[in-house]
């Protein structure tokens, strides 16, 4: 009696404490591992993100300033020709219209008087005392941000918006003898720089206090904000190693990740004193791991409590009399027998010698043999003659394996009906030991009709794939021939018309009536429009740079050409370090480019996104392309395509034509990602 009570106490109280103790120890180990492993990984990623944000913004500013300076220098080349002021104003007005960054473009004479300017602003006024003229006459010059003092009132008087701050670019002009003839200058809207900064930072909810600041040579923050660090720490950071992330301490004793990148326009004589500083509090970067620890502590505690309750229930169950357990086992056996007899799949058990001991009604229906006649007969009766010899040896080796319960797995096997028909079966075989005897049990499902349908479907898919390949090749050849025709015939003809028109315009007398002048201008605009439309058609038919420079250059050109029309949506090309100089087969690059173009168009049209990112990774034998937006997201029901809309269907067929896989899905955090994967990634690589 005392032993029984002691056993009951052990089963009732000691057993529940063991799983709870184990659960608490495991929870502590998980929390420690999360803090170390996940924390170190997030810290490493935060370093990379700060460096990437600063470098990306600095690169965007450098590219922007290089383009603006090149445009002004190219426009300044007109000073060496006898161009009329109206034509010069028209060229400047057209340049201003191509980019939202320009606020004003003007040309002065050698004394600082404005000869020609966009919208006629400040024409006739003198700017000889402004740095714009004083510095611009000495060479290509770029000034820092300042208020629009001279332009504010003239812009308001003609109904144009007045920016809060401007940046200046100026370049000297020379006549055809090389003498100084004036300055060509431009004011840039500082809000254009701010838009680029916001685009680099991305959505506010995903920043985690990440900040990007534009700083001048004196350490003054022009755009963005600076961390709350002492002035000497800030100055030292501005003199640190370019592109490297350093850790500084702010006024509150918190660690801050900080990286700087100077703004250096490439392939340009323009020089700036600007630099970009990206920074992020380390605690904000590690916020996910803190949330993970709190979640683990909460759910781990609840799990430990649940384990304790389950252990208590199990211990009470183990304390029941043995007779009740035996009764329960008998009931389970009866239930198991009923389940086997009611199963729609065939269940067959054989002993070590291959003699049948269990043959349920479903097996009788599938094989056409009565159950009572099959008990004790060899399993070979149910196998085609050609497979019996190999099957017997395989069955014996499996029976000799040392295991009480060992699943053999699933696969397709052949069977033989009583009427001689061959069956295709889906089999799952396992080994069990009952009272020292080994039994092999097979669960069989008749998939003969399904196998025929699968083979027919594979044949149809193969035929459809070949047809798709031929259609895509024909499309590629047709577009190439059409593009060649447009370029060599219509394009050349329009170019000749443009040259003839320019030559004729210079011969027209100055005494033409205003109406005739207007017609002359409209004719020139129509010629320019026709040339632009032919170029646009060529871009649509034959991707620029794809054949000559490859997929990366073509995608970069595509994003740049769409960038102005896509505003305020930001477009970004993200190339993995190892894929920057890789070329893939021509048909793979063509299909990937067309998929990227279609996905990009869909994102701009339907996603309502703030940013679209085209990611490229790969090697010579593997390519991964992903187009991701942060918009409304793709409905799961539309991932396979919509009736009447062939966008996703067309992209999937292009992928299949090159043996690639295309996936369209909605991101967990919002937005849509469309990915194409061709070839096999290197070992250890996870695409996207």
3D architecture notes:
- This protein has helices at 2-76, 85-98, 131-136, 149-157, 190-201, 231-238, 282-285, 287-318, 322-342, 361-367, 371-374, 388-400, 448-507, 514-541, 546-549, 551-566, 586-607, 647-657; strands at 102-108, 114-117, 141-142, 166-174, 180-189, 211-215, 221-223, 246-249, 255-262, 275-281, 346-350, 356-359, 405-416, 422-434, 437-446, 570-575, 611-619, 622-629, 661-666, 672-679.
- Among the domains are: 200-286, PAS domain (Beta-Lactamase, 2-Layer Sandwich), CATH 3.30.450; 324-446, Beta-Lactamase (2-Layer Sandwich); 451-540; 548-679, Histidine kinase-like ATPase, C-terminal domain (Heat Shock Protein 90), CATH 3.30.565.10.
- The protein has a 5-stranded antiparallel β-sheet.
- It is elongated.
- Strand 6 and strand 7 form a beta hairpin.
- It contains 18 helices and 20 strands.
- The longest helix is centred in the N-terminal third of the chain and has 75 residues, at 2-76.
- It is 50% helix and 20% strand.
- The protein is of the alpha+beta class and 688 residues long.
- The amount of helix comes to 40-55%
Strand order of the largest sheet: 2-1-5-4-3
Mean pLDDT level:
80
Query: What CATH architecture of the domain at 548-679 would you give?
Result: 2-Layer Sandwich
Distance between the termini: 67 Å
- Reading off the top of the CATH hierarchy, the class of the domain at 548-679 is best stated as Alpha Beta
């Amino acid at each position: 009696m005392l032993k029984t009570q002691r056993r009951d106490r052990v089963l009732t109280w000691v057993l529940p404490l063991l799983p709870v103790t184990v659960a608490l120890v495991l929870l502590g180990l998980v929390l420690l591992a999360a803090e170390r492993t996940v924390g170190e990984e997030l810290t490493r990623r935060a370093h990379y993100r700060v460096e990437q944000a600063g470098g990306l913004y600095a690169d965007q500013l450098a590219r922007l300033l290089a383009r603006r300076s090149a445009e002004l220098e190219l426009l300044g080349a007109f000073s060496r020709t006898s161009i009329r002021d109206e034509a010069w104003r028209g060229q400047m007005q057209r340049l201003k219209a191509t980019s939202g960054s320009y606020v004003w473009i003007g040309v002065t004479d050698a004394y600082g008087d404005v000869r020609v300017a966009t919208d006629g602003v400040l024409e006739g006024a003198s700017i000889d005392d402004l740095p714009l003229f004083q510095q611009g006459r000495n060479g290509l010059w770029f000034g820092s941000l300042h208020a629009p003092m001279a332009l504010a009132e003239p812009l308001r008087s003609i109904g144009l918006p007045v920016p809060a701050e401007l940046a200046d670019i100026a370049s000297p002009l020379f006549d055809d003898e090389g003498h100084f003839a004036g300055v060509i200058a431009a004011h840039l809207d500082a809000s254009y720089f701010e838009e680029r900064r916001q685009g680099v930072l991305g959505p506010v909810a995903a920043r985690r206090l990440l900040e990007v600041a534009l700083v001048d040579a004196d350490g003054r923050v022009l755009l963005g904000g600076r961390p709350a660090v002492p002035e000497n720490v800030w100055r030292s950071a501005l003199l640190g190693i370019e592109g490297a992330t350093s850790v500084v301490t702010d006024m509150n004793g918190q660690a801050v990740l900080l990286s700087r990148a100077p703004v250096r326009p490439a392939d340009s004589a323009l020089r700036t004193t600007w630099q970009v500083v990206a920074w992020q509090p380390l605690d904000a970067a590690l916020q996910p791991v803190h949330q993970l620890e709190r979640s683990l502590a909460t759910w781990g505690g609840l799990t430990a409590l649940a384990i304790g309750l389950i252990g208590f229930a199990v211990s009470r169950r183990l304390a029941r009399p043995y007779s009740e357990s035996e009764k329960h086992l008998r009931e389970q056996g009866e239930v198991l027998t009923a389940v086997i007899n009611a199963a729609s799949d065939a269940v067959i058990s054989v002993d070590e010698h291959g003699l049948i001991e269990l043959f349920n009604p479903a097996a009788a229906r599938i094989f056409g043999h009565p159950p009572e006649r099959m008990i004790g007969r060899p399993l070979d009766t149910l196998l085609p003659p050609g497979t019996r010899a190999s099957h017997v040896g395989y069955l014996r080796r499996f029976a000799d394996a040392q295991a009480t319960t060992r699943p053999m797995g699933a696969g397709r096997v052949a069977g033989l009906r009583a009427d001689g028909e061959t069956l295709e079966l889906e089999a799952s075989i396992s080994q069990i030991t009952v009272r020292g005897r080994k039994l092999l049990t097979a669960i069989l499902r008749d998939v003969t009709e399904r196998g025929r349908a699968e083979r027919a479907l594979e044949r149809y898919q193969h035929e459809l794939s070949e047809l798709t390949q031929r259609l895509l090749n024909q499309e590629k050849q047709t577009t190439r021939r059409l593009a060649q025709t447009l370029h060599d015939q219509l394009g050349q003809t329009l170019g000749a018309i443009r040259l003839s028109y320019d030559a004729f315009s210079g011969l027209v007398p100055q005494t033409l009536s205003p109406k005739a002048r207007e017609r002359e201008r409209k004719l020139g605009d129509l010629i320019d429009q026709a040339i632009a439309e032919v170029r646009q058609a060529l871009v649509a038919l034959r991707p620029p740079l794809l054949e000559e420079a490859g997929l990366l250059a073509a995608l970069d050109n595509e994003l740049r050409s769409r960038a102005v029309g896509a505003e305020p949506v930001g477009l970004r090309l993200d190339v993995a370090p190892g894929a920057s100089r890789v070329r893939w087969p021509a048909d793979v690059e063509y299909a990937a480019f067309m998929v990227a173009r279609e996905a990009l168009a869909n994102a701009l049209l339907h996603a309502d996104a703030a940013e679209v990112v085209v990611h490229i990774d790969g090697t010579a034998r593997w390519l991964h392309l992903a187009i991701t937006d942060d918009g409304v997201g793709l409905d799961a029901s539309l991932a396979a395509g919509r009736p009447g809309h062939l966008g996703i269907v067309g992209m999937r067929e292009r992928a299949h034509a090159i043996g690639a896989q295309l996936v369209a899905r909605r991101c967990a955090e919002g937005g849509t990602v469309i990915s194409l994967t061709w070839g096999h990634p290197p070992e250890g690589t996870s695409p996207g």
